[in-house]
Specification:
406 residues; alpha+beta; Phosphorylase Kinase, domain 1; Aminoglycoside 3'-phosphotransferase, Chain: A, domain 2; 2 domains; five-stranded antiparallel β-sheet; three-stranded antiparallel β-sheet; 15 helices; binds adenosine-5'-diphosphate; binds magnesium ion; EC 2.7.1.100; Kinase-like_dom_sf; S-methyl-5-thioribose kinase activity; ATP binding
Length: 406
């Protein structure tokens, strides 16, 4: 780097600015031979692929504002710091699941990491009707391991409190979730938009006090339930896959929150892929069945892996061995996690049709009448998850509900 001031990179600037970095040159050779391409398709940051000598690395850099909106919406560069801190912890807790970090520069808000290839974003694969072998097992395990190892079930209390304090400063990214996920969907907000034909159901949702209330209670869980280090943004756009391999990226929203948060957000994204399928193919049944099997498998793997860790690796202050807790305590804990997951799942299903950031599963449906009909099923199921999640005690009940609303 030339100096200590932050400067946003461009493909043209990058070789000059990063040409002396060992993390790059050792993999892609000297800067004269680099080909640089900006590929960021996310809402927030710059992502460059740097190619050379038959290899490639990714350079991700935060901008001082929200990429999707522009410099009218400032966003602190510290999110790169939190993304890096989260990547390091996730790599230790579920080895091989996140891209390897090769270099971090706090001033430039920049992470050099492993280039995932030929991986593509999972959401695109699901829209295209492509299956990924092992996706449910990989993600169920990732959610279980990160939930467990970041919590008071595993960590030493002093370290856990210090870490929760560190991540407490990821204020701006939490603020996005607090506004866009839990609040904006349930009122008229400037940044909201929805498919025009949805107007009646949007009005009825916003008039429903039980829904608004339930979402606020989920917000309490979000802000006041620092159980573990969550990924914070685990949607199908934060997952990259081949036909047989699954990796998790983009944990810049990392925060200490409920153990069921990531699982609930992820399940919502599988369910939105499910509801949107009829618009993407003439015979959606097989893909829809597969998506529900992914929901079942993700939950089963989460439960099994979490139970295994609870039984074999409990070293924190919670449920100490000397209190002699057994299966019943584990079941109550799992029910607590599941109940949260269902509430977060409902909020995510709502915000992706009502708030600022929509998802391609629905957004790419050009026939707005059809889009609204499919989004309505998703919104109604989300409402049920928020107000009556006690009636959805397990994954089978969740899948039954998806069938009911489809
Ligand atoms: P944002 O925080 O802006 O959403 P992401 O981390 O999600 O940025 O990255 C945006 C896009 O860049 C991803 O959708 C993916 O296509 C690509 N990308 C990000 N990280 C990698 C990686 N390690 N390997 C390959 N492609 C990546
Ligand atoms: Mg992203
Ligand atoms: Mg991101
Ligand atoms: Mg939309």
């Amino acid at each position: 780097m030339h100096d200590d001031r932050y400067e946003a990179l461009t493909p043209e600037l990058l070789p000059e600015r990063l040409g002396a970095l060992d993390a790059l040159t050792s993999r892609v050779g000297s800067a004269e031979g680099w080909q640089v391409e900006e590929v960021g398709d996310g809402n927030l940051n710059l992502v460059f692929i740097v190619r050379g000598q038959g290899a490639a690395v990714v350079v991700k850099q935060a901008l001082p504002y929200v990429r999707l909106v522009g410099d009218s919406w400032p966003l602190p560069l510290t999110r790169a710091f939190f993304e890096h801190e989260a990547l390091v912890r996730q790599a230790a807790r579920d080895p091989g699941r996140v891209p390897e970090v090769l270099h971090f520069d706090r001033t430039q808000a920049l992470i050099v990491m492993e280039f995932l290839s030929p991986h593509v974003i999972l959401r695109g694969k699901l829209i295209a009707g492509e299956r990924v072998e092992g996706v449910a097992e990989a993600l169920g395990r990732f959610c279980a391991r990160t939930a467990f190892y970041g919590s008071d079930l595993s960590m030493n209390a002093e370290n856990k409190k210090a870490d929760a304090t560190l991540f407490l400063d990821n204020v701006a990214l939490c603020d996005i979730t607090e506004q866009l996920v839990f609040t904006d969907p349930y009122c008229k907000a400037e940044r909201n938009h929805h498919t025009p034909e949805l107007a009646p159901i949007v009005a009825s949702l916003r008039a429903d006090e039980a829904v608004r209330d339930a979402a606020q209670f989920m917000l309490i869980r979000f802000t006041a339930g620092p159980e573990t280090l969550c990924h914070g943004d685990l949607h199908t756009g934060s997952i990259m896959c081949t036909d047989t391999e699954t990796r998790v990226i983009d944990p810049e929203f990392g925060f200490y929150g409920p153990m069921g948060f990531d699982l609930g957000m992820l399940l919502a994204n599988f369910l939105m892929a499910y509801f949107s399928q009829p618009a993407h193919r003439d015979s959606p049944d097989e893909m829809q069945d597969w998506l529900l099997s992914v929901v079942m498998e993700t939950c089963a793997t989460f439960e099994n892996e979490f139970a295994r860790l609870w039984t074999e690796e409990r070293t924190g202050i919670l449920f100490p061995a000397r209190l002699g807790h057994g299966e019943a305590a584990l079941r109550r804990l799992m029910a607590h996690i599941w109940n949260d997951a269902m509430g977060f799942c409902g909020c995510e299903m709502h915000r992706r049709c009502l708030s600022l950031a929509h998802n391609a599963d629905f957004e790419t449906i050009s026939d707005t009448g059809l889009r609204a009909r499919l989004e309505a099923r998703n919104l109604e199921m989300g409402r049920q998850l928020l107000v009556a999640r006690g009636q959805v005690p397990d994954a089978s009940a969740l899948v039954a509900l998806a069938h009911e609303y489809n």
